[in-house]
Amino acid sequence: MNNFGFIITRHVNSTNTNKYWNHSIKLLRTFYPDTKIIIIDDNSKQEYVQSEFEYKNVIIIQSEFPGRGEVLPYYYYLKFKFFENAVILHDSVFIHKMIPFEAFNKYEVLPLWHFNSDNENIGNILRVSSVLNNFKILEDKLVIKNNIIGLPQLKWYGCFGSQCFINLIFLQKINNKYKIVNLVNSLKNRTDRCSLERIIGCIFYTESPKLYKIKSMFGDIMQYQKWCDLTFEKYITNLKKGTIPKAVLKVWTGR
Question: What's CA 2's distance to the chain center, in Å?
Answer without folding.
Answer: 20
